[in-house]
Amino acid sequence: MSEFILETQDLTKEFKGFTAVDSVRLQVQRGHIHALLGPNGAGKTTCFNLLTKFLTPTRGHIVFAGHDITGENSAQIARRGVIRSFQISAVFPHLTVLENVRIGLQRFTGTSFHFWKGLTGLQTLDAKVLALLELVDLRDMANLKAADLPYGRKRALEIATTMAMEPQLMLLDEPTQGMGHEDVDRVTALIKRVAEGRTVLMVEHNMKVVASIADRITVLARGAVLAEGDYATVSRHPAVLEAYMGTEATELQGAH
């Protein structure tokens, strides 16, 4: 078994002459938190869209758990265990916190589409749901409507729902986007906790978050890999500092 759960070779996406992702070689090690970092327009989210087949690569290959998945569609890739959470919180606002996570678990029970059946069968999942909610500090909010949660807690709920689908690889797209310091710290600690024994690939803009939890970082600029390594290595890389000109470069150096 390869130490890398995900590998890309020459991954490229062109849009009418514009190259958004340029020959990216990515290797994500099993059990690690791997961050994709880069200034706005670097190609981070496009790269995520290629990995989950929301976009089709112009060329290159994607290998997951030893299987070439380049030709597979989004549903096939999700069934393999590549599960993505989105930049904008994606929960069912009028369902309770518990019901949101229970929907994620239903795919393993054969009741995924049995919304018209009684709740008795679904309630057998509740012990597992509550254990997941405990992990993300939402157990006390299980019966609240998702719409009533503060923004940071909605992101925690989204992570719990992602975990309910038992991902082999969790893709987190800007998990701390739009949060205040308190929520950022809470969600950072949460990601570290849920990543134990799992593999996480995350797009993140917050240097402090990346410095504190990422085992390995790939820095993109203009669609290409600029640098790779641990935080200490990439934060001192001259080309990375140049890409993060001005205040962002200061933040990059001071985040550890």
TrEMBL record:
GO terms for molecular function: ATP binding; ATP hydrolysis activity. The keyword ATP-binding applies. InterPro entries: AAA+_ATPase, ABC_AA/LPS_Transport, ABC_transporter-like_ATP-bd, BCA_ABC_TP_C, P-loop_NTPase. Gene3D superfamilies: P-loop containing nucleotide triphosphate hydrolases (3.40.50.300). Keywords: ATP-binding, Cell membrane, Membrane, Nucleotide-binding, Transport. Residues 6-247 form the ABC transporter domain. SUPFAM superfamilies: P-loop containing nucleoside triphosphate hydrolases. GO terms for cellular component: plasma membrane. This is ABC transporter ATP-binding protein. It comes from Pelomonas aquatica. The lineage of its organism: Bacteria, Pseudomonadati, Pseudomonadota, Betaproteobacteria, Burkholderiales.
